[in-house]
Design a protein that fits this description.
Two copies of one chain form a homodimer.
Chain A (H helix, E strand, L loop, with lengths): L3 H15 L3 E5 L19 H7 L7 E5 L4 E6 L4 H7 L5 H7 L4 E4 L3 H6 L4 E2 L6 H11 L8 H12 L3 H24 L6 H14 L3 E2 L4 E3 L19 E6 L1 E2 L8 E6 L6 H20 L6 H19 L6 H6 L27 H5 L26 E4 L2 E3 L2 H7 L3 H6 L2 H4 L7 E3 L2 E5 L4 E3 L8 H11 L1
Parallel strand pairs in A: 1-5, 3-4
Antiparallel strand pairs in A: 1-2, 2-3, 6-9, 7-8, 8-10, 11-14, 12-13, 14-15
Chain lengths: ~450, ~450
């Protein structure tokens, strides 16, 4: 947590930018797994935490710009609570920690809001938010505030020095977690055994995971949460995992490494294509550059590499324009990162990653690019190109004229069970370019094979 | 998962017992942590899983007794899904696995229900259930079905042989997880470092946790999810943790062990009181016995032990009747266990643990006893007595006449920082008594000290 002044200044900036009305920021509640009181680990709403700092359930923050009043709503502690949870600081003393001097019990929220004639709230992403907002506003159809979304996105997109330090901490934890798994994985293990090392590391260091660990020999399945496969000698393992520090900032990295001591020839070739793409994309990052253009540059670099391998042919620019590369790279190059691993995703990708002038594309490939707009110093983002061989996609496009023009299907058919490769780092945009965050983690073929050979 | 016949028979029994109407059973959805698509690990609703077996999100089961029809509602897979999640079995083939031959898309649920004139559903415990039920029934105030609750509780309370085998598996995993932590913990570690070994074990063995690990040197705080304390030489560590197997059955055990190689004299004395109570309570379990009476027997045993130590005095029966023992034992002796660690808790403790004739008490102590009713063969439950020294409670009762009659406050004041002890095992009620489930785990002072001495 930062000091009270930080939160006060953040709220002050929000007030000034928004200019009027009443801002209602919902903290999260405990979430029941299979019954109400069997709780998942608590994750606070990141916007609430950005302005009100507290990492506890059942709080609501109000910034009443018109009355120039900030209030923290929360539960009152009962004597029974002391028996079950031990003595806790009072709501008032919690509020003081984040520079708020007015507190009220949760039961008073609806009454308080009844007086507001210009209520701003964010889009609900948990059903509990929906229910609360319905109950407090008396409306069935909610109307999240676009001005509030835009103001918050503008403010949170530029990370302060203190925030960048926290993110750097999260990325270093993330990097060490990856290193630990790279040393731990062995042929014959199940994916969940390997994943357990990442999960152990997060808990052992007093952190949370910033998202569920992706730990798979089937890297071509992009959202793969299944962990039942056994690691075989010639497999690659793709680990996409990140730490969320106690202060609430996320890291997010991906590495792909051989289960054996070395990559196979085919793996090595395509790994190098992804790595070259990764380096080229990172080198292109600088203020003013559209991230969409960095993505397209990466697509061209990837296409060039695939042409060299023989899996693609034809003119690179035409291939990318026609979307031919999406046979191998179906998703976006990266996303904003901060207190959320996909920063502010619940506020809407159009607002976070694009502008009114630059709308998000609906084309396959580009529609999965979460960030498109011009970069600014203080942005923190990921760069994560990949090659994914999806048999279903090969079959789907086999008779497609455009695909035939650029894809070597005969060769590709021999890659059907190749799997997937992704390499991902986290960077901050600086005045002159960008800087990779966190402790370096093996990435070149030589480095990756060295750490595996040492481990085995 | 069991075979299709099992689920068909379970639904058949429900139909016969309930006699008529339309039963709507909601599976769970994925739950977002800090934005919608950043999911917590998936936990299925246990009742849905009991009757429909499937451990996937976004499914709804309908048992239409009047039309003699069973339908599984679910999502249809799109081409995009294949790219992101890989090919999945169709809804129809999933349904076949659990003996259901009719499937419909989720979008048709409201229409289907519109024809029902006797709709039965369970109390919502996740906000998503509330929103769905409101949308599908058109009602703001929901009316869960008491006959459905009672029928399901009656059916699920008696575990089948196959279920007991699954629970035994969960308890054995749980026991091994505890053993591993008992060997792992060291002076100077943070509680979260110790907890990481339990969490690692669950994931490494391909299981989930049945509830968030309690791993604390402050065992007197009953719902302690804080893990920031450092283990000191004379501390005891209380570990309350359980495994949920892939088949969806829970284990739940607690052990309290010294951070050093041996208990201190004071710890040893009170540990033995808890252990004697634990043994006496387990020995009393048999069909026909009220679990409430087992709880009261345990309270008397505990009081006898505390009298011997010198912390209590006076007549044991009178002390327990007056609730004096709740200075040390504030909660219930145990609870039902099955697919939920507190089995069926979302259906209501009154219905699961009590009867219309035996209402749950509102007295301090007894009001936290989740199970009171007469035991039957096939019940699976926990026995978990404890001693918890809560300084705030001492101060609260210091001037209480009844407390003064039974409590040695002068001595108790020297125990203010003692902490807490709990010992918990899982048992099944048999025709003649009960049987402890799972692989035995050190419990006597000699056994516990031996495993610690070996480890250190």
């Amino acid at each position: 947590m930062f000091d009270a002044t930080t939160y006060t200044q953040r709220r002050q900036q929000l007030k000034q930018q928004l200019g009027g009305g009443l801002v209602l920021l919902l903290g999260n509640e405990e979430a029941g797994m299979n019954y109400k009181d069997n709780w998942y680990p608590f994750y606070q709403d990141s916007t609430f935490r950005y302005y009100f700092g507290l990492d506890l359930a059942d709080l609501t923050g109000v910034i009443d710009i018109d009355r120039d009043e900030v209030i923290l709503f929360g539960p009152e502690q009962s004597i029974d609570d002391v028996v079950w949870t031990g003595p806790l600081p009072s709501l008032a003393s919690l509020a003081e920690q984040v520079g708020v001097h007015n507190v009220m019990p949760n039961g008073k929220i609806a009454d308080y809001l009844a007086g507001a004639n210009n209520l701003h709230y964010l889009p609900p992403y948990r059903p509990e938010h929906q229910l609360k907002l319905q109950a407090w506003t008396g409306k069935t159809v909610l109307e999240p505030s676009l001005p509030l979304i835009e103001t918050i996105v503008a403010q949170r997109s530029i990370k302060s020095e203190a925030e960048i330090q926290e993110i750097e901490k999260a990325v270093t934890f993330t990097s060490r977690m990856h290193r630990s798994v790279m040393q731990f994985a062995r042929e014959g293990m199940k994916e969940h055994e390997v994943a357990s090392e990442a999960i152990r590391y997060a808990e052992a260091t007093g952190n949370l995971l910033s998202f569920p660990v992706i730990c798979t020999t089937q890297g071509q399945i992009l959202h793969n949460h299944y962990r039942g496969n056994t690691l075989k000698a010639n497999d690659m393992l793709l680990l996409d995992a990140g730490i969320q520090t106690a202060a609430g900032y996320a890291g997010d990295m991906t590495r792909t490494f051989p289960v054996g001591p070395t990559f196979t020839e085919r793996q090595r070739e395509l790994y190098q294509v992804v790595l070259d793409t990764h380096e080229a994309a990172m080198a292109a990052l600088k203020p003013g550059m559209l991230y969409k253009d960095v993505h397209l540059l990466a697509c061209r670099k990837l296409t060039d590499g695939l042409k060299q391998v023989g899996l693609m042919h034809g003119d690179t620019d035409e291939a990318v324009q026609a979307g031919a590369h999406t046979m191998f790279f179906q998703c976006g190059l990266g996303h904003m990162m901060g207190m959320d691993v996909h920063d502010m995703e619940n506020l809407g990708e159009q607002y976070v990653g694009y502008t009114p002038e630059l709308r998000k594309s609906t084309e396959f490939g580009l529609k999965s690019l979460r960030l498109g707009r011009a970069l600014e110093p203080g942005f923190v983002l990921t760069v994560e190109p990949g090659i994914y061989i999806i048999p279903e996609l090969i079959d789907m496009r086999r008779n497609d004229k455009v695909a035939q023009q650029f894809i070597n299907f005969e060769m590709l058919d021999t890659y059907r069970d190749f799997g997937g490769i992704r390499i991902e780092d986290d960077l901050v945009i600086t005045e002159s370019g960008s800087r990779i965050l966190g402790e370096p983690l093996p990435k070149t073929i030589t480095e990756v094979e060295a750490i595996r050979q040492q481990a085995l």
